[in-house]
Structure formats: structure tokens, C-alpha cells
Design a protein that fits this description.
The complex is a heterodimer of chains A (472) and B (243). Chain A is α/β, with parallel strands linked by helices. Chain A has 2 domains: 280 residues, NagB/RpiA/CoA transferase-like (Rossmann fold); 55 residues, no CATH class. In chain A, 50% of the residues lie in helices and 11% in strands. Chain A is built from 21 helices and 12 strands. In chain A, the strands form 3 sheets. Chain A has a 6-stranded parallel sheet with strand order 1-10-7-4-2-3, with helices on both faces. In chain A, helix 15 crosses helix 17. Chain B has 243 residues and is α/β, with parallel strands linked by helices. Chain B is 49% helix and 12% strand. In chain B, the strands form 2 sheets. A 4-stranded parallel sheet of chain B has the order 2-1-3-4, sandwiched between helices. A 4-stranded parallel sheet of chain B has the order 6-5-7-8, sandwiched between helices. The longest helix of chain B has 18 residues. The radius of gyration of chain B is 18 Å and the shape is globular. The two termini of chain B are 32 Å apart. Classes of the chains: A alpha/beta (472), B alpha/beta (243). At the A-B interface, helix 1, helix 14, helix 16, helix 17 and helix 18 of A face helix 1, helix 2, strand 2, helix 3 and helix 4 of B.
Chain lengths: 472, 243
């Protein structure tokens, strides 16, 4: 970006993405695969709808007594030798983590994939403090090498082709590598193995935290999560407050729907249940366990129209089915969490008064809610954000005037008919036969990509006057 | 049976022939149809853009127009969804109007739902020999109202028709009302995917039960110089499918 240039808006970023054909190709292939695999995984699950209801009920129970469950979780973690830290926002969380790392002379950190660390921009903070973070999830490592941000909640490098990955890896290892997936993953494994062995601290996210036992659950596919949480002497886990669930029995409900929704697997390759620090006499677990519990705007959504956004288990299913996400990819959103639920989570993180621009990035088709394993009513939340945008006067004066005029016309039959007549007069210079291929602004934006139909010479209501007489 | 026709703004202004087709089909089924005076629009464009207070004002004026109706037939999935699902939500702090809105919603049926109820088992008396037809699910009709079988069943009852299911029939066409004007490039990209799927079926007629989707898809097909036509289900059932 040029110095002093205003930051690009969603539409401009999306426009760039639409011109990036390799990106769109990669997105189409990956999202279609996710959609097909998810459909097939749910076909074999007869009680899917019941599970969805059960999962919602558990989340609702947790949110109703969130403070109780968090305190119980904290107690359970402490009883098993862990240390619990509470962070109000990203800056507090970063301070807690940096203090712990500095006090232990940490030089390098291995990380397993964690969106919440992206949310608080932990890598940047670690680097600024002279600590080297190494992402060990394959996708995360790819984008770390590329100096980019994740473009999907569960597939951070979904936008990268194997050719681009081969280029990145070749630069990293200093010799040319063929764009062969097996070779590339073997290279990553070899490179990352060294990092695991020399890291002073492992940092992970948390998929679920079980209040009754203090168990931190990680759902992964590459095994790196297990390495991060077991090889270095210190394990630090960070979670949003909404990740707590009451019991291990509840966990089983979520495990059934998470992998199916995310990758279309019946179960992920690894489900790690981490309960407490290394007991005396054992040798294969960290001696120190820290859990950072982060609010960062979440508690503000406990009441009000966005409460269900806290049900989200970050499976990414709504991204894959979203027609907008599928065309423009995650980076166009310019936010940590892209896609339909990302729009809601972004407004949560921004707090009141944040830009509601992204709320427009949806055709309101409802595919997101249909795909959501928690049945989160994302479309209505988008409508609510749009209402807030109008209330906050974020819409342009021209737009507000246009919709107020529309409302006036729709309240007065006579005005409505007059508007139709005016429209029919104004369209005359533009009608070519049965179509209009060019209109002035703002409808020029429509006719740039498709034809517009002319207003009919006689409206239906005019025609009804004759139709109605014939045997009504 | 008596029913009132809800005249949606797009049908009134752009597609009056859809309305004529509905009148023809419903009368053939013995429905006594009226068309309450003074209608304008359901107000969905206002809701979709965040102008809920304005939409509520429009609704307050509209609801009494249909007070005496036994059934309300709506030719568009999105408008039917607005009347059935969204209208009451506009009056969360006004119990009396909310009750009226709910009563209106309970009487409301989208065209294909209504016809499927009234004409179950009847032959339609329309033939389209050798014509390849495909159906596009409108988002609000499919996911908002759960209607997917009725229009397909009715189409299959047209004599001689060659019905072909398209890939991704249930995916958005990219219209989304003002979405198509506010983010035209994205809307156009979504539309191109839809057109690709339509063309793969070789269909001469694409059927949709929403004038918004009709506007979007026919605009895209016509810009590409495609010969495929987009028609409302009622137009096919009224015999407008023959060229």
C-alpha cells in the first residue's frame, strides 16, 4: 500500500480477488471438495438434526451460566497443576504471554494452528520481543513463510496452489523443490521436526475446554498439535471464553459434528485431551501448563441479537458454502475471521461503532445457516448489523435519502403509481428492444455485467382492471 | 376456494405477464381470485438494507389491505418469506400489530405451495413436448420456507417435458436485491457460475419462483446472447412456455 493512501475497502479488495484467476481456481476446487465431503459425512449420520439441537442446548446452557462454568474450568485446571490467566482483551493476553516467555528466557516458540492467536496478533508481538514463533500446522507454516494471514478458518492456505507452495518451500530450504504434494509435506515435516525439538514453549489454541475435568481438547489432523503440547517444557493454551463446555459427555456431541462440518471426516486424525501437567515419575509431558482465557469483546455479545455467534465452533462450513466467500476468498474481508460468521465475529471484536461495511458482503442466501452445525441464524445477524449501520449513520447520505424516498413511495399507492410512470418515461432512451444494456449510475453497476429488463408499458395492476372483470 | 393475489413490485412493474399467468392457472383450478386495491410492495428491500423502522411503516399500511383475505398467494419466494417469517419480527414491541402480522403470515402461501395444495393429483393440461426445462431454487423459498419439491413435482406433470436437474440448483444466483447493485462484480461472478450450470443442462427454459432471480438470470443469459429463457413456474403452467 502507498504511504498515506486510504485503506482499501471490501469492494476493492474483492475486485482484486475476482481478477486473480489462480486464486479463484484454488478456491473453487477446495470449497467444492469441502462441500462434497461434508455432505457425504453427514449422510452416514442418521441423527444429525438431533445432534444439532443437542449441541445448541449445551451452548445455551453454558452461555446462561458462563461465569460459573469458567470458574469451574479454572478450578479444575489449577487442581491439575495448571495456571490460569484472565485477559480482558488482546493487549492483556499478549502481555501475559510475553511476560511468561521473558521470565523463562524463551527464544523460540512452536505453535499449533490457533485463530485466537491470529485474533490477538500474537506472532507480531512475539517477534517484536525477539522471540521466534514457528507455525507448525502445514497451512499456517505456508502462510507464515509467505508473510500472509489465514484466508480460511480451518484451511489457512486454501488460496495457495501447490506451485506457489513449492516456490515458498524452495526459498526456505535453498534448493528447488518440485510441486509434488508428498515431497512438499515431507520437506515441511523435516524442517519442523527440528523446530519442535529446540522450542522453549509450545502455544496452542483450544477447541473445547471441559469444565468438570479441566481438560483442554485439540482437534487436529497433522499431529503437530500433539507435538506442540507435549515436546516443549512449557505449554501455553489460549481460548476465548465461549470455548468452555460442561462435561466430557458434552464433548462427544461436538466431536461428532465438528470434523464432519469442517473437513467432512467422521473423526479428525487426532483428538488430544490435555488434562494437567506432567505427573511425577512420567517423562513425556510439559512441566508447566498455562491457560489464558480471553474475552476481547465476547461478553458484550452475551445479551442481545448476536448471542448465537458465541455458539460458533469455528468449523468453517459457512465459508465453504457462502457464494461471496467462494468467489473472493478470505483476504478480501480484511479481517482475522472471514466469511459469514467472520463478519459477525469481526463486529464483535471491533466493538460498538466499528465499521459495518462487511455486513453488505452477503446476498442473504441463507446457505451459511443451513450448513452451520449449530444452526446459527447468521442471516438475521447480518440484517441486524445492517440496521445498526443505518442507525450509526454509516450509510451514505444519498443511500439514506434513496431508501427514505422508497419507503414514502411504498406507503402511498398514488406515489407508487407515479414513480412507475416517471420510470417508464426516463427509461425510454435506454430501451433496446426487450432489454436495457446500459443505465446511468447507480444502475450502471447492474448493467455492467448483465441486462436490465424494461419497465412494462402496462403494469399488472393496470392489466388486472380488465382481467378482474373476466369471471372474478 | 377464495384467494387474494399479492402483487409483488417486481411482478407489477417488470413482469406483468407472470401475474396474468397466475390468474389463468388459478382460475383454471377453480380459485376465485381477488387483488386487493392499494398494494405496493412487501418492504423486503427496506429490511434487507437495514431500514427496519421504515419497513414497519410500510407493513402497518399493508396488513389491513389483506385483513379479509382467506388465503394470500405470493408469486415470489422472497416476498412470501418476508410476509410469513419477517413481518412479525418488525413488531417485537407492538403486540397488537405483531398478532395481525402473524395472522397475515399464516394465510400466506407461495404460488407453487398453493397450487400443489389445490391441484394435487389433477392433470395440468399443458404440454411442452421435447422441451428441456430446469429449475432454480430461490434462496428464500428453499431455505426460508423449505419449499423444493412442489415446483419440481408440478413441472414434471407438464406433458412431454424433459426435466433436467442442474448442478447446484440450490445455490444463490447472486441477485440478493440491492446486493446486486452494491456489489455488482461479486454478484456477476456468482451469476456466471449459475449460468454455467444452466448451460450444462442444455435447458431451453429455466424456471424460478422469484421475480428477483428471474431478473438476474435472464439479464445474464441475455447479455451472453444465450437462447435460454427464464420463466416463472406459473408461465409454464399457463402455457407461455411454447414459443
Amino acid at each position: 500500500m502507498k504511504q498515506g493512501a486510504p485503506p482499501l475497502g471490501f469492494e476493492q479488495r474483492a475486485s482484486g480477488a475476482l481478477k486473480n484467476l489462480p486464486l479463484r481456481q484454488a478456491l473453487e476446487v477446495a470449497t467444492e471438495r469441502f462441500i462434497a465431503q461434508r455432505a457425504s459425512a453427514f449422510r452416514d449420520l442418521p441423527d444429525a438434526e438431533a445432534l444439532r439441537k443437542r449441541a445448541r442446548a449445551i451452548k445455551e446452557e453454558v452461555l446462561t451460566r458462563l461465569d460459573d462454568y469458567l470458574l469451574r474450568l479454572a478450578d479444575s485446571v489449577r487442581q491439575r497443576g495448571g495456571v490460569v490467566h484472565w485477559a480482558k482483551d488482546g493487549s492483556e493476553a499478549r502481555e501475559i504471554i510475553l511476560d511468561l516467555a521473558r521470565a523463562r528466557g524463551v527464544k523460540s516458540v512452536v505453535k499449533s494452528k490457533s485463530m485466537v492467536t491470529e485474533e490477538i496478533e500474537l506472532n507480531e508481538a512475539l517477534e517484536a520481543a525477539g522471540i521466534r514463533p514457528v507455525e507448525t500446522d502445514l497451512g499456517e507454516w505456508i502462510i507464515q513463510l509467505a508473510g500472509e494471514k489465514p484466508s480460511h478458518i480451518i484451511a489457512p492456505a486454501i488460496h495457495k496452489s501447490r506451485h506457489e507452495v513449492a516456490e515458498l518451500f524452495s526459498r526456505k530450504v535453498g534448493r528447488p523443490l518440485a510441486p509434488d504434494i508428498e515431497l512438499l509435506t515431507a520437506t515441511a515435516r523435516e524442517q519442523l521436526r527440528q523446530e519442535f525439538l529446540q522450542a522453549d514453549m509450545g502455544i496452542s489454541g483450544v477447541n473445547f475446554a471441559v469444565a468438570e475435568t479441566g481438560t483442554l481438547v485439540l482437534v487436529t489432523n497433522e499431529g503437530n498439535g500433539r507435538m506442540v503440547t507435549s515436546v516443549p517444557p512449557v505449554h501455553l493454551a489460549i481460548m476465548g471464553i465461549e470455548k468452555v463446555i460442561p462435561t466430557l459427555e458434552d464433548l462427544m456431541v461436538f466431536l461428532k459434528i465438528l470434523a464432519r462440518s469442517a473437513t467432512g471426516q467422521k473423526a479428525s486424525s487426532y483428538v488430544s485431551l490435555i488434562t494437567g501437567v506432567r505427573p511425577d515419575g512420567e517423562s513425556d509431558r510439559p512441566r508447566e501448563l498455562h491457560l489464558v482465557i480471553l474475552d476481547n469483546g465476547r461478553s458484550r455479545y452475551l445479551s442481545g441479537p448476536f448471542r448465537e455467534a458465541l455458539y460458533c465452533i469455528r468449523c468453517g462450513a459457512c465459508l465453504n458454502v457462502c457464494p461471496v466467500y467462494r468467489q473472493v476468498g478470505g483476504h478480501a474481508y480484511g479481517a482475522t475471521y472471514p466469511g459469514p460468521i467472520g463478519i459477525i465475529v469481526t463486529s464483535m471484536l471491533q466493538g460498538p461503532g466499528g465499521s459495518k461495511e462487511l455486513a453488505s458482503a452477503s446476498s442473504l442466501c441463507g446457505a451459511c445457516q443451513e450448513a452451520c452445525p449449530l444452526d446459527i441464524d447468521i442471516p438475521h445477524m447480518l440484517l441486524e448489523l445492517r440496521r445498526e449501520a443505518v442507525a450509526d449513520r454509516q450509510a451514505s447520505g444519498g443511500e439514506r435519502a434513496a431508501f427514505r424516498l422508497m419507503a414514502a413511495i411504498l406507503r402511498h399507492d398514488g406515489l407508487y403509481r407515479l414513480a412507475g410512470r416517471v420510470g417508464r418515461l426516463l427509461q425510454r432512451p435506454f430501451v433496446r428492444g426487450k432489454r436495457i444494456d446500459r443505465l446511468p449510475f447507480p444502475l450502471s453497476r447492474w448493467t455492467a455485467v448483465r441486462d436490465f429488463p424494461p419497465l412494462s408499458a402496462r403494469t399488472f395492476r393496470d392489466r388486472w382492471r380488465t382481467l378482474g372483470r373476466n369471471g372474478a | 376456494m377464495k384467494a387474494s393475489l399479492f402483487v409483488t413490485c417486481l411482478m407489477d412493474l417488470f413482469y406483468p405477464e407472470v401475474g396474468e399467468a397466475i390468474v389463468k392457472v388459478l382460475r383454471a383450478l377453480g380459485v376465485s381470485l381477488d387483488c386487493p386495491e392499494g398494494q405496493t410492495c412487501c418492504g423486503l428491500p427496506l429490511v434487507n438494507n437495514g431500514y427496519r423502522a421504515e419497513a414497519a411503516k410500510v407493513a402497518r399500511r399493508m396488513i389491513p389491505l389483506f385483513e379479509r383475505s382467506e388465503r394470500i398467494v405470493v408469486p415470489s419466494g422472497s416476498c412470501a418469506w418476508m410476509l410469513r417469517e419477517e413481518l412479525p419480527r418488525l413488531f417485537s414491541d407492538d403486540a397488537a400489530t405483531r398478532a395481525q402480522a402473524e395472522a397475515m403470515g399464516r394465510k400466506t402461501l407461495e404460488f407453487s405451495e398453493f397450487v400443489a395444495q389445490v391441484a394435487d393429483g389433477d392433470t395440468i393440461g399443458i404440454s411442452l413436448p421435447g422441451t428441456t426445462v430446469t429449475y432454480h431454487d430461490s434462496c428464500h423459498l428453499l431455505r426460508g420456507l423449505g419449499v423444493s419439491e412442489e415446483p419440481r413435482r408440478l413441472l414434471r406433470r407438464v406433458e412431454g417435458i424433459r426435466y433436467v436437474e442442474m448442478q447446484g440448483a440450490d445455490r444463490c444466483c447472486g441477485f440478493g436485491g440491492s446486493f446486486s447493485v452494491k456489489l455488482p462484480e461479486i454478484s456477476g461472478a456468482i451469476l456466471r457460475e449459475k449460468i454455467r450450470n444452466i448451460e450444462a443442462t442444455g435447458a431451453e427454459i429455466v424456471v424460478a419462483d422469484d421475480c428477483g432471480c428471474i431478473m438476474q438470470m435472464s439479464g445474464g443469459l441475455s447479455r451472453q446472447g444465450s437462447g435460454a429463457r427464464v420463466l416463472h413456474l406459473a408461465q409454464v403452467l399457463a402455457g407461455q412456455g411454447t414459443r
